[in-house]
Amino acid sequence: MIRCCSTARGKVREDYYQALGVTVNSTPQEIKEAYRKLQKQHHPDIAGYKGHDYTLLLNEAYKVLMSSSRNANANASGRGFGSGFTGNGYSSWNGPVRSQALFVDENKCIGCRECVHHARETFAMDDVLGSAHVEVQFGDLEQQIQVAVDSCPVNCIHWVGSQELAVLEFLARPQQKEAHGVFGGGWERPRDVFAAARNFTRRLERQEQQEMAPEQRYNDDAREEAETVAQAEGRRRAGQELRWRRLLDVLNGLRDRRKPGADR
């Protein structure tokens, strides 16, 4: 079985650490410094075309590792709605990850156990919360799963994109409320988990863009610097070509003078 958004990507994340030459214990600052150093060395304007694919890998590795670091810091702080999100889902996968996944809106589930009755390898009951959830994606035959979905009396079982699953499963569970002084705190669930997931995803994207903005400016500066080096190389070659042309003109002139009748 493959743990959603975690074990399936474990090997990939190991490759990202290797690409940047950092470890799982590296700080965000160390990741940033390693990224900048490698970007400057392998920029296509310096390393040529072969550096193009490698710089794309560096960009992706930096984006993923910095995002993981941000989520880990948020999880450590443990404050506010959605602060514990790590990017990992709760359900596991029976077989390869597919484009669609099953999601139970636990806030609307009435605990009837119909889904568990028809597909017990896929669905499970949380006796503490009194609601069902997906334990294993596609743990049963698809026919059994569809019967389980159709048997839900409140239509709280949904087919969703697998890329949406981690956020939805996270927000479907009770979230810690942000406290203000001695007031507030406690736990809550969003009334509309799909709307909450859209807002939460947009917030993550904004945070990601803000973190990537300084690196984009740095890449632009590095590109300008690389272009200056390229321009200097172009001027050097142009100068050499001009000197060779002048030398050839002189040689051709000498040859013309040596031809019979050239002085007449």
UniProtKB/TrEMBL annotation:
Gene3D superfamilies the UniProt entry points to: 3.30.70.20, DnaJ domain (1.10.287.110)
CDD domains from the UniProt entry: DnaJ (cd06257)
Pfam families noted in UniProt: DnaJ (PF00226), Fer4_13 (PF13370)
InterPro entries registered for this protein in UniProt: 4Fe4S_Fe-S-bd, DnaJ_domain, J_dom_sf
One cellular component term from this protein's GO annotations in UniProt: endoplasmic reticulum
Domain J, residue spans: 15-78
Boundaries of every 4Fe-4S ferredoxin-type domain copy: 100-128
Coiled coil: none
Region spans: Disordered: 205-238
Protein name per the record: J domain-containing protein
Lineage: Eukaryota, Viridiplantae, Streptophyta, Embryophyta, Tracheophyta
